[in-house]
Write a sequence for this structure.
């Protein structure tokens, strides 16, 4: 019958027995780069989302504010990120409704997301994302900056600077060499732009439209998108086949 | 980007754990490097968790599972405290860990553990596990990516008596606490040379009658 056809198709596509689980990402976002600086945490990513090798969406916001104290950035499957934002909405709403003067800080949200990602992995139904969680919250030792990452199977850690996806390979070496505890906002932006530029040149799926976001004790700011200046004026690019006889 | 079958649920985040039991102390140590493939994610991630007053666990393997396992054990220890009005002893925790691991026999915690502490008589004890809960009390143990490099050295230096001897001879080492800590520093330095997943820093926890102390030693970062 029609019913059994549909079931068979679902079984073939997903985890079997008529249950459907996505085991491949479809619309994906690239790297997210983040680092702590003097006043808080800065996070940046491009605004593109690819559908395999097609650049399907060019104005996607992959960094969002969470509660009063945190920013979340995501790479990987974009619809799973939207799902995570819904979970976080529920979480921050309950937190607000307690009305007890307390609010969830970045460390708590990171711990929550780690549990969510790990538990979905346990059910073989992952949220196909690498999440970056950054924020500032007043603690016993004054304003405490926090920056952490969690990936789709629940591997998580805390660091002074983080990059997901290709950024892990290309931006992290730059950050390890040049990051300092006392970077001003302008210096942090320059450093992050250096990383974004490397990714723009070398990551096939990145685009020249970026968003930077920062979070401090005053709150979070997500700046409007902008483009970086690139330089393609190299002699070898002018006439690429000049030195090579018989190239097509 | 499709991943085959169930491969993607596990990854090995590397690292090495070592524990040595003495007459009245126990040393538990682990490096602090977290890796994925050929990348280092962070140089400063602890693999050690203090589960009870005289009981410390060090785990290497898949970090998601390690965190879940250590949280699980911590929670059960807290329940035990509420029910029995005392903290769990190391041998009790050893059995609990084995049972917890076997509970997930058909979807294992990818965690290779060493449990170290003082038993109810105040003597050092070390328990060594595989991923599904098989365990044994020994005088010393190493687990993780550098274990094959370290175990032979410990075997040579600590000369544990055969478990087949009758009457049974004590497995704990006659070395002093500081000698054992020095040995741990040496084996980690050696493992770091040849194991790409071991390095950055080693976190050494020493448990004795007076309490628990912690020290960090720098290792090669390459």
């Amino acid at each position: 019958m029609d019913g059994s056809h549909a079931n068979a198709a679902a079984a073939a596509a997903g985890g079997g027995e008529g249950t459907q689980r996505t085991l491949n990402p479809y619309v994906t976002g690239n790297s997210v780069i983040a680092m702590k600086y003097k006043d808080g945490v800065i996070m940046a990513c491009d605004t593109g989302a690819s559908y395999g090798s097609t650049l399907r969406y060019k104005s996607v916001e992959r960094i969002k504010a969470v509660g009063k104290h945190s920013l979340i950035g995501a790479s990987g499957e974009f619809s799973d990120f939207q799902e995570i934002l819904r979970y976080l909405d529920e979480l921050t709403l309950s937190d607000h409704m307690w009305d007890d003067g307390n609010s969830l800080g970045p460390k708590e949200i990171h711990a929550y997301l780690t549990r969510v990602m790990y538990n979905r992995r346990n059910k073989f139904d992952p949220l196909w994302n690498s999440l970056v969680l950054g924020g500032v919250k007043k603690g016993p030792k004054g304003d405490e900056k926090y920056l952490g990452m969690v990936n789709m199977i629940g591997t998580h850690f805390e660091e002074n600077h983080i990059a997901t996806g290709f950024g892990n390979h290309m931006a992290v070496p730059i950050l390890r060499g040049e990051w300092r505890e006392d970077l001003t906002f302008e210096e942090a932006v320059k450093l992050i732009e250096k990383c974004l530029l490397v990714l723009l040149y070398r990551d096939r799926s990145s685009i020249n439209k970026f968003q930077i976001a920062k979070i401090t004790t005053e709150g979070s700011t997500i700046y409007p998108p902008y483009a970086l200046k690139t330089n393609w004026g190299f002699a070898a690019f002018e006439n690429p086949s000049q030195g090579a006889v018989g190239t097509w | 980007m499709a991943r085959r079958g169930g491969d993607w649920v596990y990854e090995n985040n590397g690292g090495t754990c070592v524990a040595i039991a003495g007459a009245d102390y126990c040393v538990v140590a682990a490096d602090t490097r977290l890796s994925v493939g050929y990348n280092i994610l962070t140089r400063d991630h602890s693999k050690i968790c203090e589960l009870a007053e005289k009981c410390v666990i060090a785990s290497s393997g898949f970090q998601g599972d390690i965190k879940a396992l250590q949280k699980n054990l911590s929670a059960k220890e807290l329940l035990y405290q509420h029910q029995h009005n005392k903290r769990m002893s190391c041998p009790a925790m050893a059995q609990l860990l084995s049972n917890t691991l076997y509970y997930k026999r058909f979807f294992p915690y990818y965690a290779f553990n060493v449990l170290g502490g003082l038993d109810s008589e105040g003597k050092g004890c070390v328990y060594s596990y595989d991923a599904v809960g098989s365990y044994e009390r020994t005088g010393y143990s190493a687990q993780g990516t550098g274990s094959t490099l370290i175990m032979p050295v410990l075997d040579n230096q600590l000369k544990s008596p055969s478990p087949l001897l009758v009457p049974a001879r004590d497995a704990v080492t006659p070395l002093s606490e500081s000698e054992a800590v020095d040995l741990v520093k040496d084996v980690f330095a050696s493992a770091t040379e040849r194991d790409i997943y071991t390095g950055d820093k080693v976190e050494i926890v020493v448990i004795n009658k007076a309490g628990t102390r912690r020290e960090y030693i720098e290792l090669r970062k390459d």
